[in-house]
Design brief:
single chain; 328 residues; mainly alpha; two-stranded antiparallel sheet
């Protein structure tokens, strides 16, 4: 439940934020009648992703317990971890320009007279998030040792997805109403760190599958065995396994891959986020003293402070000195 909640929350916020930006911009330029093209693109993306996800799950379920299923799971883990890492870093570096890029592409679609271009724009944006969500959800289902094959487990995964999507829509509504007063940068940084740990768990599961397939014939030594205390098949153990990659008897290679990825990826993500933050605004310049006069140059880059002459006593009135009348 928790992994699907986090995934659908994160992807739902990004997708709904993109749609909100498009609708808000169309509303600002008086193009509300074009809303229908955006909605058509959103519905088409949802339909395609939902159908593709169900078809992929039914296909792999047909090969349950076979070598083909293990291979498909390993590929899914690797793809999900790669896409998860890429989109997290991409959002970190493009979050500040995403709005302007969407507005520019919307203008291009409107200026070209191709109103359906707005639908394609919405389809691409939402479809990308939906495709990522589908891959991550399949990976969660495969990584979950006791949820994937039980009705209770299916309901738990579905409940987490619904709750995550509902919270994402609520956040999107708050974004639309409050605008800049919501710190989205902090939200994506926190969720990004959580997803990095989740991606590390997927890589550890991929390593386990490749060792079972004989593709990685090394590092098979078991580090510990905690099955007596917290089994992966238990409810709590399954949550830790699907979210963090917990294993009750991990191999050396699994632990090395998990620890290396978490250390490198999380550090790089936090460092990039710190560099991407805008510099604090400079403090306003103090007011000039009464005895000085600030004169700004035309480039507005330099202020020249010129001392002014303090006011003094009025000068005595002077009269022209001439000769007295009658004096020659």
């Amino acid at each position: 439940m928790i992994p699907t909640f986090v995934i659908f929350l994160r992807e739902g916020v990004e997708a709904s934020m993109i749609v909100a930006i498009l609708l808000s911009y169309l509303d600002q330029i008086g193009q509300r009648r074009q809303f229908r093209y955006v909605f058509w693109g959103v519905f088409a993306a949802f339909g395609l992703i939902l159908g593709g996800g169900i078809a992929a799950y039914l296909l792999i379920d047909h090969y349950s317990g076979s070598r083909a299923q293990t291979i498909f799971e390993v590929v899914t883990y690797l793809v999900a971890a790669t896409v998860l890492t890429y989109m997290t870093f991409w959002m970190q570096s493009h979050s500040r320009t995403m709005k302007s890029e969407l507005m520019a592409r919307s203008d291009a679609a409107l200026d070209g007279g191709a109103r359906w271009g707005l639908g394609i724009l919405a389809f691409q944006a939402v479809g990308r998030e939906g495709l990522e969500t589908m891959v991550f959800t399949l990976a969660i289902v495969f990584a979950s040792t006791n949820q994937a094959g039980t009705p209770v487990g299916h309901r738990s995964l579905l409940l987490g997805a619904v709750l995550g999507l509902a919270v994402a829509l609520a956040i999107a509504y708050v974004i639309f109403r409050l605008g800049r007063r919501l710190n989205l940068g902090l939200f994506f940084r926190i969720i990004g760190v959580v997803l990095m740990v989740f991606a590390a768990g997927l890589l550890a599961d991929a390593v386990q599958g490749m060792q079972e397939l004989g593709w990685l014939p090394f590092g098979h030594q078991v580090l510990w065995d905690t099955q007596r205390y917290l089994r992966e098949s238990s409810n709590i153990g399954d949550v830790f396994h699907s979210l963090l990659g917990y294993a009750d008897h991990p191999t050396v290679l699994q632990a090395v891959v998990w620890l290396t990825y978490v250390t490198v990826a999380t550090t790089a993500f936090l460092v990039m986020g710190r560099r991407a933050r805008p510099a604090p605004a400079p403090a306003p310049a103090p007011a000039p003293d009464p005895g000085t006069l600030a004169v700004a140059t035309t480039t507005a880059e330099l202020d020249v402070v010129v001392p002014s002459v303090p006011p003094g006593p009025p000068a005595p009135e002077t009269r022209a000195v001439g000769r007295p009348s009658g004096v020659t």
